[in-house]
Design brief:
The chain has helices at residues 13-16, 214-229, 246-251, 290-303, and strands spanning 25-26, 53-60, 63-67, 69-74, 79-85, 97-100, 104-109, 112-116, 122-129, 136-143, 145-146, 154-155, 158-159, 176-180, 188-190, 193-194, 208-210, 238-241, 266-270, 315-319, 328-332, 338-341. The chain is mainly beta.
């Protein structure tokens, strides 16, 4: 199980900011450990792609998920409804166990709980156990630093910059920032992606801050599944760029103040199974050209109306290779369609 992966990620008040006081476990049997580490990707093991889903769905707040691990982002003391989604309207969710090592849990009914997040920012995994299959889903819940805590465009010395007031729901300021302490980069935020992949390339630290949305993680997982379904084996996407602070975006010469990279729902991706740092020859013409980005972009276009991509509408940009980087594709979940690029 996940608590056996790495002892170095055992939760403690010093490593992940757990609130002091006794742990609370709701509907858990005596065989379930009271503490467990955050899942991490083992860089020593050769990774083989697999969707890594559990045979049930869980609704956490407004998000529904069937992956065996997924990140969730909440504010301090936020009260979050959590429930197992029955397979049918008449179905039952009895017997499921909700395990939380921190925060306050209340059982609403069989398979449904409310969970109050701790007051201190940090990582607080919770698990939902299926008694029938014996499988468990891990939700890596990050309690964020509220946006209002930013002072002078920075948090604890890490320069972020300012977000303009949103003129629409698509450009609302992020509610908060994920605090990424040293050693947390390997924490899984979905089956095939880790927290460190999304960090801004801006210098600073050792503690950094990040904005990330669950919808982007779901879209990347769904696109990765399609790439593998079409005969191109890849365990993850390489991310040329994901979150960018407004401060960093200006520093690299981008004049826009409303880049989707500011809002944690955009990533510039490419497939790199040979580890050379550039897009693989996806269209198999023996060359590394813009056509490889077009091959990947075509998957984005072809799947946008599929049921798995409902609610994941966004932008698509395709970029040719240059002397400094290979070809790549920009994807985001801004909420409306946008297309550009070569």
């Amino acid at each position: 199980m996940i608590w056996q992966i790495l002892l170095s990620f055992m939760l403690s008040a010093t490593s992940f900011g757990a609130d002091a006081g006794p742990s609370i476990i709701s509907n858990a049997s005596a065989s379930v450990p009271a503490t467990f580490p955050a899942p991490t990707v083992d860089s020593v093991t050769v990774a083989v792609y697999g969707e890594q889903r559990v045979p049930f769905q869980v609704r956490f707040g407004d998000e529904t998920n069937s992956y065996n691990v997924m990140a969730m982002f909440v504010l301090p003391n936020e009260l979050v409804p959590v429930s197992v989604v029955p397979e049918s309207e008449s179905g039952s969710a009895s017997g499921y166990q909700f395990v939380a090592v921190s925060g306050a849990t209340n059982t609403v009914r069989d398979g449904a709980w409310t969970w109050m997040a701790p007051s201190k920012p940090g990582l607080y995994p919770v698990e939902i156990h299926d008694p029938e299959s014996g499988q468990a889903m891990t939700l890596n819940v990050f309690v964020m630093v509220p946006y209002a805590n930013m002072r002078g465009g920075a948090i604890n010395g890490y320069r972020i910059g300012n977000y303009p007031k949103g003129k629409s729901q698509f450009y609302s300021r992020p509610p908060g920032f994920i605090e990424v302490s040293p050693g947390m980069e390997g924490v899984q935020v979905s089956p095939h992606f880790t927290l460190g992949q999304f960090l801004c390339k801006q210098a600073g630290g050792p503690t950094k801050y990040l904005v990330l949305r669950e919808a982007l993680l779901v879209k990347l997982e769904e696109l990765l599944a399609e790439v593998n379904n079409r005969g191109r084996e890849a365990y993850t996407f390489e991310l040329l760029s994901a979150y960018r602070t407004p401060n960093y975006n200006r520093a690299i010469g981008n004049s826009t103040t409303r880049s989707r990279h500011h809002y944690g729902d955009a990533a510039d991706i490419f497939v790199d199974t040979d580890g050379d740092g550039r897009m693989d020859d996806l269209n198999r013409d023996g060359r590394h050209t813009l056509a490889d980005a077009h091959w990947l972009g075509a998957i984005v276009n072809a799947t946008q109306d599929e049921p798995e991509f409902e609610g994941l509408t966004g932008g698509l940009g395709m970029y040719r290779p240059t002397g400094s980087h290979g070809g790549f594709v920009h994807v985001d979940v801004r909420g409306f369609e946008a297309r550009w690029g070569a």
